[in-house]
Write a structure and sequence with these properties.
Layout: E1 4-10, E2 23-25, E3 28-31, E4 44-50, H1 56-112, H2 115-124, H3 156-172
Antiparallel strand pairs: 1-4, 2-3, 3-4
């Protein structure tokens, strides 16, 4: 793994003590370069090493994978929606063609069912002919015939019913 280094410019050259080893600055390890001479007042560049915390690389990788999965799911859902829209459009086109064909067939059926076409079909295909007035025969039916139903004998229940009917009529007036 590569070292993470931070370089910064130090204006306070004389405010720190330098030694051959490492200085401790604010609880962190800081490597310093030794001054060439104390008389020089050149600003010094310090090197600070920052180590990555444990698990931070794993977190970055996991977050990257999560972001890639979310992006992939969004792209997939948009693709599926686009596919469904295309299917709906093609099916609507087929529906319009089918409706136009249905309208054409309905008008053709109506024209085939006209009286003229039925008459032609009866004469040419079935061999039928128009009727002559001489072929018409009339049948005379007697209108004086009357059907009579003989009276039946009344039962006891009918007689009792008639008695109550007569009583009701008497009281009503």
């Amino acid at each position: 793994m590569a070292d993470n280094n931070v370089y910064y410019y130090d204006n306070d050259y004389y405010s720190y003590e330098y030694s051959d080893t490492q200085d401790v600055y604010a609880g962190e390890t800081v490597k310093t370069a030794e001054p060439e001479s104390e008389e020089e007042e050149k600003p010094q560049i310090r090197h600070r090493r920052i180590e990555a915390r444990r698990g931070s690389v794993i977190r970055i990788v996991m977050l990257s994978l999560l972001a890639a999965a979310l992006l992939g799911s969004v792209i997939y859902s948009l693709d599926r929606r686009n596919t469904m829209y295309n299917k709906v459009t093609s099916l609507n086109g087929k529906l319009e063609l089918t409706e136009a064909e249905n309208t054409r067939l309905q008008s053709e059926l109506e024209s085939e069912m006209s009286a003229k076409n039925v008459e032609e079909y009866a004469e040419n295909v079935l061999g039928m002919q128009k009727i002559d007035p001489s072929q018409i025969e009339f049948i005379k039916i007697q209108t004086g015939d009357v059907v009579s139903i003989p009276k039946q004998k009344k039962t006891l229940i009918d007689k009792i019913g008639d008695f109550f009917d007569k009583c009701g009529e008497y009281f009503k007036g």
